[in-house]
Amino acid sequence: MEDWAEIRRLHRSEQMAVKAIARRLGLARNTVRSALASEVPPKYERTPQGSRVDGFEPAIRRLLTQFPEMPATVIAERIGWEHSSSVLRARVAQLRPLFSPPDPADRTTYTAGEIVQCDLWFPGKVVPVSAKRLADPPVLTMVAAYSGFIMALLLPSRQAGDLVAGMWQLLAGLGGVPKMLVWDNEPGIGQHRRLTLGARSFAGTLGTRIYQAAPRDPETKGVIERANGFFETSFMPGRSFTSPGDYNTQLAAWLPRANARVLRRTGERPGVMIDEDRSAMGALPPVAPTVGESTRVRLGRDYYVRVAGNDYSVDPTMIGRFVDVHAGLGEVVVTCAGTQVAAHVRSWSTHQTITDPGHVAMAGQLRSAFQARTAAMRGPVPAPGTAVGQRALSHYDEVFNLPATPPCPPLAPTLQVVR
Question: In the listed set 215, 248, 279, which residue is the last one of a domain according to the structure?
């Protein structure tokens, strides 16, 4: 390469003859003539020697013609390949595009206020939910597609009530409602394009649409997928947490810095562009939507209700009555006929029993009153040693007008055989 460049410089700039150049560089004259005749640098090329897989290529092509998606391991079995698998995989990867039609993805453009993409991201078992248990709860992530503005919140579960409650909290903090919320086939939102009751009610109250992407279509949610990767590389490293509340506190403190970076896609800062995004969104509804999980049960004698695998105590005066149990993101509230009869901080663990000491004290009072009332109905208990009268059986015959019971015949004497 260096000789080729030097030969051409000496000949064109210094006007040196071929013989002089050959003598100066110590090269043959034919080498100098070849360098001057070539317009590109010389390149060493080795004659291909072929590969073992060349003889199998026709059989590979026949299989790919019928089954373009057939794995290389199956192809190796069908053609009787017994050599290196990497060589066969490389050839199959080279041939497969010839038989499988491409699926191009167009570059997507977004309009202000139109789309917010939603997803769940799992940080790993790093969140303490009890003294001895680390959990991996989901993080609800939402990104305004036009501006790239990121919102996120750690949730207790991926149930429909918690997902709807999380979306409402983030959109209320944003101060606007987009025209469309894009989800994948998350069971709490819906599957097979059929939304759950909670998701339909939420979308109707906000006046928006929830669109579920088709399976294996990552381009539909490309913005949120990149945001999830940003969480893994920029938020999680080097952090430790003491509780779910601590996780959300650290996350809320980090998000303004994340939204202050310049996006390569837009060349702008999401924290600045969100104003334009928000102004194009719809207004929040005048009445907040119903979020969380609500159930109605009849309170049993043990005066506890179960929510997400945990038991919460209720005022025992409500035993036997129907109570309404509402589980929000941070609190479990129980009401009876519109009156609150229990309120507890929601536990993010499972198999826990959460008890209000006031409920236990009230249960003790009710138990004592019940025992006293039962004792009064039974009458006074005779003192020890007191003689208790007994009636003859004939008295019962007279009361029920029954014939007199004949006396029992005497028993025959028992004979004892002595041997």
Answer: 279
Same domain, 141 and 179: yes
How does pLDDT run across 190-248, given as a tens digit for each residue? Answer: 987 789 999 999 999 999 999 998 877 777 888 998 999 999 999 999 999 999 999 99
CA distances from 362 to 115, 305, 358, 373, 375 (A): 52, 17, 6, 17, 20
Residue with tokens 């025959």: 412
State how many domains the chain has.
4
Q: Which structure tokens are listed for 208?
A: 């928006």
Q: Provide the CATH number for the domain around residue 220.
A: 3.30.420.10
Assess contact for 346 and 162: CB atoms under 8 A.
no
Whole-angstrom Cα distance, residue 34 to residue 30? 6
Residue range 273-294, pLDDT digits in tens: 999 999 999 999 998 898 999 9
Alpha-carbon gap, residue 341 to 50, rounded angstroms: 82
Encode pLDDT of 131-172 as tens digits.
Answer: 888 999 999 999 999 999 999 999 999 999 999 999 999 999
Residues 182, 70 share a domain: no
**Which one of 361, 394, 413 terminates a domain?**
361
| CB neighbour list of residue 51: distance below 8 Å, 6 or more residues apart | 87, 91
Least confident of 45-49, 241-245, 293-297: 45-49
| Distance separating alpha carbons of residues 25 and 14, to the nearest angstrom | 14
Is 60 found in the same domain as 31? no
* 222 belongs to a structural domain: yes
3-state secondary structure of 144: strand
Q: What is the DSSP annotation of 276-311?
A: HHHHTSBPPPSSPPP-SEEEEEE--TT-EEEETTEE
Looking at the structure, tell me whether residues 82 and 206 fall in a common domain. no
Count CB-CB contacts under 10 A for residue 4. Answer: 17
Residue numbers of the domain that contains 27: 2-37
**In a shared domain, residues 136 and 164:** yes
The residue whose two tokens read 């819906």 is 190
